[in-house]
Amino acid sequence: MDVVTCVTAQHRGLLDQVLAIAGLTPDVDLDLMEPGQSLDRLTARLLTALGEVMDRIAPNRVIVQGDTATAMVGALAAYYRKIPVAHVEAGLRSGDIYHPWPEEVNRRIVAPIADLHFAPTETAAAALARENVTKGVHVTGNTVIDALHWTRARITEQPDLASDLAPLLARFAGRRIVLVTTHRRENFGDGMAAIGRAIARIAARPDVAVLFPIHPNPNVAAVMDAVLPAAPNVARIAPLDYPHFIRALDACTIALTDSGGVQEEAPALGKPVLRAPRASSAPTKRASFPKCSPFSTTRRPIPPWPAPTIRSATVMPAAGSQGSSPMVSDSELKVVVLGLGYIGLPTAAVIARTGARVLGVDVTPSVVETVNSGRVHIEEVDLDGLVSGVVARGSLRASLTIEPADVFVIAVPTPFADDHAPDIRFVLDAATTIAAVLKAGDTVILESTSPVGTTERVRDLLAQLRPDLRVPGRAGEAADVAIAYCPERVLPGRILVELIDNDRVIGGITPRCARKALTFYRRFVRGACVTTNARAAEMTKLTENAFRDVNIAFANELSLVADTMGVDVWEVIRLANRHPRVNILQPGPGVGGHCIAVDPWFLVHADPANTPLIRTARLVNDGKTDHVIAQAAALIEAHPGAPVACLGLAFKANIDDFRESPALRVAQALSERFGARVSIVEPYADRLPPALEAHGATLIDIDTAIDACPIMIVLVDHDVFRSVPLEERADKLVLDTRGIWPDQPAPRSPRDALRLAG
Question: Is the pLDDT of residue 20 over 80?
Fold first, then answer.
């Protein structure tokens, strides 16, 4: 296949830089850059020039990407000639036709013309679906981000590509660098002046440096001359070429911008973004900057950007590939996922993305209503966009009642009782629900973490409820249904990535059951899928979490010993881990979550005589929470009347999951004892759990806590807490259970010497 590349060169300088660094030469260069040309003239010149190129080449397909005027006019010229159009970066929308202007309308015009839409994210695909564009939509990943990482690697290999910034960056060493870019038409006037005043407020902080490549447009440069005074920590420089800009972005602490492109690129390098007033269509989440607020607004958490991998529409293996046994095609496959919680909803959405028709069943009406509206009730990176997209396309819906399907996936909770005995009633309830619609040829898969033997109990229950069906393990290879166990193995905050990329262990009641479940998982899992029997798979999941719990217990016990001896446990661990065969985990206020704090008890309950180590680890980790409560209470009692801020309730950083959270347990104990003196900072909560509200605790933000609370109990290592600078907490009495503030000054008196080391 011959490919002809054509560039319009509206942005001549930037285009030449990118082509040079990539070593590319376009086949056709229209060189249409003209200073000050109107949109009318530009559109007319583009339409004429691109039409002539298409008449000369007579392509079979036109692919448009990049500058939106070029993409729009290129699509229109192809449409006039009845040439099929593919749109790269399709579906980017802000929802306002005047912001960004004219990009928003340009993109909308391309959508009904194109028959192939390569959307960078599920959110973009959902935007297309809202415009009734559902055919030919493929979520491919973000090519801009792939190019960014490629360029960054080139700069690392060849530092001379961006060497001009070295003296300036050396001058700003030790300061937090704010990279500023602003140039959009919709901010001209009062908006630009407001941005300039905000930059001046930021620059008033001695620990901050501002790097500001100023656009030469007088609507930017003249305004900044008027409102942004000169200062030694403000570098107003000429616009940067692409390699130098990437170097600046890589070196900065945060980016302040009104550019949609920068709003894509900065989070991809792990940089938070403050967005200048107007909306952007850039395909990423970021901190908002609605009123040009001061630097402190950067404490809001910024979700991580996924790895820069282009995922084509053909990544998922086709039915029957890789030696799998036959199953219905993706578009015909019906899947029911029972339980739409932290695992069930992402699993349902990922399966729906393959084209299968997925029904999510949940017992909570509000969950069903939320999902059917294309929204989510849990916090997980990129899940909102994915759910919105698959619901809009009709691939996913939710219900309180079950329907017949080809595959049933059980993803319900498996808690334990007060005596630590596993409680699998939700699993058995789900199996009972499935039994009502089960038919020959169906597959039932249990994903919930369960005691060894649970899958067999599901088999026995189905056999009891449906004597008309032959079940595996009793009917041999002649069984009518397949039953298997495949535990989830994902990390909150990375669920959508790990559901696809992680290896899966699939245990069947029989080998045939395992093969049939394998066929299903190969539709959406890129990691290796290893088959075994159900009991081995069940114990594998319990073993993984018990192993981690034991290792965390060592770190927590070590922190207690170090605290008694007056040694910094974080330094000890850092030094010990320099040994090539030592890898000590990080201590904390205990262990939480739906897996590690629960699953080891399943092994202990099953065989108490042979699990003393696992039991002791559980007791150590739970006991660490009690120790933190005692230390915090002693610190608070030593300062009668002083307000207290507990930082965090989640069981781990940057999520909204409070299940079995030691932080929540500490906060509850302190609020019960000290009442309204206790405030809670939890950026992932809209309101406090009832048990905290009942004792007078209040939910506040981190800025309020810094202003009002002399005592701070760090319970979760959210990024928003890590970013608090030393000067804002130097005079606080801190109990840091996560080691996020190693530079916190030593206590001023013996009664304050309770800065717990872990």
Answer: no
